[in-house]
Specification:
Blueprint lengths: L1 H11 L2 H9 L5 E3 L12 E4 L4 E4 L3 E8 L5 H10 L6 E7 L4 E7 L7 H9 L4 E7 L1 H14 L3 E5 L2 E4 H19 L6 H32 L5 H15 L3 H11 L3 H22 L6 H18 L2 E3 L2 H13 L7
Antiparallel strand pairs: 1-5, 2-3, 4-6, 4-7, 5-6, 8-9, 8-10
Length: 328
């Protein structure tokens, strides 16, 4: 078991993982409806992130990019800045991606720039990304419901497979069970602990999705021969034959096919980062600095849609219960 853990940490988990460990911040999504001026609008009810409200042809949504958000305190400040604007029905704050979605009644609020100006005035520079109509809101809900069987989320159109999430969660639970025994997932601490694992895994997969959607947009590609060479190098340096390696993978809960898929992704990501993002860096510090700046910008611009509303609510609850600017 120790050999496979060492093996996976040395080569298969490539440079980008080390960079992630250096720059990843706590995922802090916060959502709460402003209680001021929230009234039922019609007979169509939706539940979007734990908050339930009514929609009709007068409901629209504005999506804003907002800078400098970092914690639940930021959320409270921003919501307070919008409390005097009539017509706002719900406010969804996504700290990790630097986004805010504001649902509003178009009969009561026609100038969405008021929302942008109020958020900016509260200390968080904001700009409008786009406005979503009632029909589009309905389509988003229907699409999320249909896709939730196979995907947990989408990052800029890059879908994150539920099978990947389930595999990573199974491996994480198995690892902790081996170290701590059944008690770690039993009793009153079991569900909160598992929820934390889900949040951590979701966050990593979202980060990978941000990378992949940027690579897709750039049309950057690698050929099969490149992946094969990297794979052969990996096995040569590991000192493992194929059968022993497959057996070791199975012991930790990974299939060889899943490993190959992830290995190819890591090769693609690292080639892209080294050739497109960090090509001018002369040392490790410059590489990390260039990557951090690029990745934070990409993540801030990425549009994340959660198909699994239960996972989305876990992120919401984490933010609601978390302290200011704390990393747990």
């Amino acid at each position: 078991m120790k050999s496979i853990k060492s093996l996976l940490s040395r080569k298969a988990i490539l440079f980008v993982v080390l960079v992630f460990l250096a720059i990843t911040v706590a995922v802090a999504l916060g959502y709460k409806a402003s209680k001021k001026d929230i009234k039922p609008l019609s007979v169509t009810e939706i539940s979007n992130t734990g908050e339930t409200f009514m929609i009709n042809e007068d409901l629209s949504k504005v999506i804003l990019s907002v800078r400098d958000m970092s914690c639940s305190g930021c959320i409270s400040t921003i919501k307070a800045s919008l409390s005097d604007i009539q017509g706002i029905k719900d406010i969804l704050v996504d700290i990790s991606n630097g986004k805010i979605e504001v649902f509003y009644d178009t009969k009561k609020l026609s100038d969405v720039s008021r929302i942008m100006r109020a958020i900016t005035a509260s200390g968080y520079p904001a700009r409008v990304l786009r406005i979503v109509s009632t029909d589009e809101i309905e389509k988003e809900r229907d699409l999320a419901a249909a896709k939730s069987r196979y995907y947990i989320a989408s990052v800029g159109g890059y879908d994150i497979a539920r099978a990947d999430f389930d595999t990573e969660l199974g491996v994480a639970k198995k690892r902790y069970l081996q170290v701590y025994g059944d008690r770690i997932l039993a009793g009153g601490q079991g569900k909160p602990f598992e929820d934390k694992l889900k949040i951590q895994i979701l966050s990593r997969l979202i980060d990978e999705g941000v990378l992949m959607q940027e690579i897709d947009k750039s049309d950057f590609r690698i050929d099969a021969d490149t992946v094969e060479r990297e794979m052969q190098t990996f096995f040569r340096e590991s000192g493992k034959n194929m059968e022993d390696f497959k057996k070791a993978l199975n012991e930790v809960g990974y299939s060889f096919e899943y490993f190959k898929k992830k290995f190819e992704t890591k090769v693609l990501v690292n080639k892209y980062l080294n050739e497109r993002i960090m090509a001018d860096a002369s040392n490790q510090y410059e590489k990390q600095s260039l990557f951090s700046s690029w990745f934070n910008n990409a993540k801030g611009l990425a549009e994340v849609v959660y198909y699994d509303k239960n996972l989305e609510r876990l992120l919401k609850n984490q933010s609601d219960s978390g302290g200011c600017c704390s990393v747990k």
